[in-house]
Amino acid sequence: MLFRERRRKKLAGRSFPDEWLAILEKNVPLYVRLPESDRQELRRHLLVFLAEKRFEGCGGLEITDEIRVTIAAHACLLLLHRKTDYYPGLKSILVYPDAFVVPDVRHLVGDTVLETDDVRLGESWHHGSVVLSWNDVRRGATDIEDGQNVTLHEFAHQLDSSHGRGDSTPVLRDEATFDAWARALGRDYDGFRRAVQSRRPEVLDEYGATDPAEFFAVATESFFETPNELQRVYPRLYEELKKFYQQDPASPERA
Question: What does the pLDDT average to over 111-116?
Answer without folding.
Answer: 52
